[in-house]
Amino acid sequence: MHIGPVDLGEKPLLLAPMEDVTDPSFRYMCKKFGADMVCTEFISSDGLIRDAAGSLAKLRIDEQERPVAIQLYGHLIEPMVEAAIMAERARPDVIDINFGCPMKKIAARGAGSGMMRDVPLMVEMTRRIVDAVRLPVTVKTRLGWDEESKNIVQIAERLQDAGISALTIHGRTRAQMYRGAADWTLIGEVKNNPRIRIPIIGNGDVSSPQAAAEAFDRWGVDGVMIGRATYGRPWIFGEVRHFLDTGEFLPQPTVARRVAIAREHLLKSVEVKGPVVGILEMRRHMSNYFKGLPDFRATRLQLVTLTEVDRLLETLGTIEERWGDFDMSRAVPTPLGGGKI
Q: Which domains, and CATH codes, for the chain?
């Protein structure tokens, strides 16, 4: 599969952009475990053009992440075009437009999935961004605003005509948020539309190797994007790739292996963001690495309250010592929940 000149190989697996999740350290971990492409957290166009520190910081990418996309959101054309030009200067491989975030504070302003209520504006914004930058432009969106307006087939055609290089579709409406099961039938309909020439990437409830295989084999998508199932499980990309290649399942990482992964992730986060912010932002990841361990509440509390790297490393060592013999295949799977995509 190609996005413009970017070759992602056959049946690529992509990391979904997720606010407060897909920061540089987590992207690094997912890439290490086989993600074929990663994406930044979504970035406000207004924040970028105001030089807001938080938005500018999200432009940071590393050569080890490539290929990498920068995702933007906004509700006005001119700021989005200006933000796309700014993002291009950060030298990503792809510019992605967020027309899918369902969060009220985003959608109510007409950004994210709120743009699905004004398709002509969505199409014109996309066309203007495509014309303004040299990089390939992609879009991530949903099936429609609600059950009565699942218009993704028509939207896909119009976005393709506006010049995008690939389209990612989340199999829910905005009204669903993250409730209920993702509906892949319309994703498949878009992919099988004879008018569609660009790659179609499916997203929604891909939490197992079998679900990814079904997305490719049953619905025919060109790529699969994985979001919430990566929480505490960046190795899911390796699991899925192994299953696609061999039809076999990899064993779950041992406690010792998870400790090593959490340690590397922590140190990478501190390297990128410093000891204060790096530790604070690791809290959303740290305990998820060990979800399912019995009698873990007190240790989990330490993982999300300690403020010193050395103390956290000591706690990780304690986890390995105490639970090293626990069979992680008995652990409760990471639930789908949280995160804004």
A: 2-246 (3.20.20.70), 255-329 (1.10.1200)
